[in-house]
Specification:
Elements lengths: L5 H11 L12 H26 L3 H4 L13 E5 L4 E4 L22 H12 L1 E10 L4 E12 L2 E9 L4 H17 L1 H8 L14 E4 L4 E5 L21 H11 L2 E9 L6 E11 L2 E9 L1
Antiparallel strand pairs: 1-2, 1-5, 3-4, 4-5, 6-7, 6-10, 8-9, 9-10
Helix pairs in contact: 5-6
Length: 288
């Protein structure tokens, strides 16, 4: 019988509170983003055409209850001087205000970036963190925009999941950091919103000498605990499986179910693993 620490019990409550996820073969996580991007661009085209047709009276159509709200997608309009004129989402609270110097949750002055790009080329895209009206959580958003006269019309979609390529790149960075200075790397991995925190991506490290967590970018209570005691919602000993995998080869990949720190739900996860000396280093991405 496994003795699970208090930290693992708290994590178990998080995992078991969500429905179990059926594990399948990994899909291309980028496909969902591509579909959302196409939806956002189509809505922007429709909004621009509508504005060109009826001009200022179109602003009322872009409100929360207008016909230009499609799930989490909505239209917002700012003037080329930086005043919010209309919005079908959370930014409706900003209507009438100068948003030029407004910053997102990460401190980025994204409206100013949009205004600068609009002045330079008339259209483009800006990435930032913003409240998702569907789940009321902060999320990474990519907004496409187009200038019509002195109005900037924008539509964005939320990127809740990192791509497989992003996960592989982060793992490569993590491995190089461990090789360069293990202690410094471990410290960096354990920082919230640190250099190894990107959307739903994070690094975890298990010491193969004693099977204990040395680092975990999200659940800091796991650090120092017995990694072999950790199971996914189905009861699978996922860390044991990972250790067994890298015992056969220094690089491996595993699939399991795990809480997504961005969405708050248990989702399918595909994790890339590397054995670096006596350390197991892992980074995984979530997919639908």
């Amino acid at each position: 019988m496994n003795i699970i620490s208090g930290a693992l019990k708290r994590l178990a409550h998080v995992v078991l509170a969500s429905a179990l996820v059926q594990i399948a073969l990994p899909a291309d996580a980028a496909m969902a983003d591509a579909a959302d991007a196409a939806r956002a661009q189509a809505l922007l085209e429709r909004a621009v055409a509508h504005y060109k047709e009826v001009e200022e009276s179109a602003l009322a159509s872009f409100g929360r209850k207008g016909k230009f709200v499609e799930g989490e997608l909505y239209v917002y309009v700012i003037s080329t001087k930086g005043v919010m004129l209309a919005s079908g989402g959370p930014s409706s609270a900003l209507v009438g205000r100068d948003v030029t110097d407004l910053h997102d949750a990460a401190g980025k002055p994204f409206f100013r970036e949009m205004l600068d790009k609009a002045k330079e080329s008339g259209s483009g895209a800006v990435e930032y963190y913003w409240l998702n009206p569907i789940d009321n959580k902060m999320g990474r958003k990519l907004a496409y925009f187009q200038t019509v006269d002195d109005r900037i019309i924008a539509v964005g979609y939320y990127i809740a999941r990192a791509t497989p390529a992003q996960a592989r790149i982060m793992l490569t960075r993590a491995v190089e950091a461990v090789k360069d200075d293990p202690d410094k790397a471990i410290h960096a991995f354990n920082q919230l919103r640190g250099p190894f925190s990107e959307d739903d991506l994070y690094v975890f490290v298990v010491d193969l000498k004693d099977d204990r967590f040395r680092a975990h970018g999200i659940y800091h209570d796991l650090i120092g605990t017995d990694a072999l005691a950790l199971h996914d919602p189905s009861g699978r000993p996922i860390i044991k499986d990972m250790i067994d995998a890298v015992a056969k080869a220094d690089q491996a990949e595993v699939d399991y179910a795990w809480p997504n720190p961005v969405t708050g739900s248990v989702e399918n996860k595909h994790t890339y693993l590397r054995k670096v000396g006596d350390l197991l280093v892992g980074v995984g991405y979530y997919w639908r």
